[in-house]
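Task: complex structure prediction.
Instruction: return structure tokens for all chains below.
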Amino acid sequence: MSSEKNELKGVTGWIDKRLPVFTFINHNLRDYPTPKNLSYFWNFGSLAGVTLVIMIVTGILLAMQYTANADLAFDSVERIMRDVNNGWLLRYIHMNGASMFFIVVYIHIFRGLYYGSFKAPREILWILGVLILLLMMATAFMGYVLPWGQMSFWGATVITNLFSAFPVIGDYIVTFLWGGFSVDNPTLTRFFVLHYLMPFLIVGVVGLHIVALHQFGSNNPLGIDVKSEGDTIPFHPYYTVKDYFGLGVFLIIFFGLVFFAPNFLGHPDNYIPADPLVTPAHIVPEWYFLPFYAILRAVPDKLMGVILMFAAVMVLFVLPWLDTHKTRSAQFRPYYKQFFWLFFINCLILGWVGSMPAEGLYVLISRLATGYYFLFFLVILPILSRYENTRTIPTSIAASVLSDKFGNEKTSTENI
Amino acid sequence: MRLLIKICLIICLSSFFKINVSAGEKADLIKQNWPFDGFFGRFDQSSIQRGFQVYREVCAGCHGIKYIAYRDLANVGFTTDEIKSIASEYEILDGPNDEGEMFDRLAKPSDKFVGPYLNDKEARVANNGAYPPDLSLITKARAGGADYLYNLLNGYKDPPENLEISDGMYFNTIYPGNQIAMPMPIVDEIVEYEDETPATQDQIIRDVTSFLVWTAEPELEERKVLGIRVLIFLIIITLMLLAVKRKVWKDVE
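Output:
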């Protein structure tokens, strides 16, 4: 039963009766009731969506010029940079877009963690999100191999070799991944095909992610359910304009990198053509994999390292059942809040030691940081779920806005 | 508490980037002011032209620039006739012709620069087993970029007494491991500039570095010009969106 206001007439009405696209858009992008207290941290979902589109469009255009062949790949990338009209722009957008995509998605994930967006009834929404992260990681890894520079080649060698740690089947898996007995042309061609395929799988999962989101609507900084119409505002124009503004700020940073420091986040060795006979002094993955790389190297045993590295992502899948505290938002959980920030800093530390050689003090730091990473999920969260007392939670979003105003006035007079 | 967390974060982030950068460049590089640095960076064409002369007379004996075509020189101020005559100094193997035979011909402006060696193996044999890398991308392929190259070429010093230098190697303060197979290539007056710029070692090194930054990033000027326009556009439209956002949200409470 749609209200009379939304009754469509004429051609749109005729089409909508047969294929309800306009009703769908209206329902999901216009009238869609959204909590009115969302902060700018809620911009990052739509930013990730926009980045995905940018990556797919530039990627398709690049694929028209790229040659997936071990002897030609590096030269074809240089041809894009030099001879293809605006090829340098496309490639630098695609290259830096990968980094921006991970920045946005990581902030999106930390936001979900802080405000308890993974809790009931949004568990499946969260799991789909972790699945997107996994697909993104695979896609980014294989994309980095395509220019066939030194880091491409040796990064691919190190990471695919990890699978050899598994007993009995390990060597078969590695040979299967490589399509031969070393990283070579068959590896490059299959990575190219999968790199082209996987973004479309991501699009599919993103679709499901949005369906799951719109089932219960967005979480919000207070972490309390929407109680009445007074708690919400329609998505358009309020959140469309807020998302556009956020997109503007995002693009300023993104294109600042593309035009003025396009290789800042990359590694110089990847401008040296791949050479199986020369190993680079330090093989480091792209920055967004560094925390996981640090966990991998923290363990002296190869198999355990590999298992822990995968577990570091997999643990996110079961997060809704590790943190079962009824209160969602960290704002009302004094202890969780502190452990969360410690966890955040710990992730930065992991990223930092991941970029360092695995020796001396760095090994110790990476072990401590790895320890806290898992301690946070497997011990601290279950314990807090049971014993943590929360601060007084407002009864509704509307009530909180009003009392907050009142509270602010009070504190400001106290300050004087 | 919140302030404390913020301070911690800022310290962590800043040290993260600082350490990351310093890890890339092992030896301390003396930073230079390059005309192509910064938001408004532009190439100095006369310096690049002199650098090309240095490349041809000094570097080209061992190093190629295979991603550059002769006609690309038009972008740094060479005329069509000059480019034709430069190209015609090189011979290129082409074919097969209608009789099925390979033949040598003079290079055309559309050909890429002909390298000094036929293949990697020949390059190694001629250089005591060391491989002189192609220089097209050299400033992008080394941490520190132009500064690295400038410091490396200036980095030839007398070795410390306790250091034993292997046969056919030279001491260099910047090169990783301090032993480089390339003898000191650039000294005062090794080229004679046509525009009467004094050919000091420092000047020659600056010119050839500028030239190699251009070969690595020929799009640099176009990129920065377009970048300024894009950023101005984005900043204006973002400010406008902020105003619209404020207006739309005015009544929400």
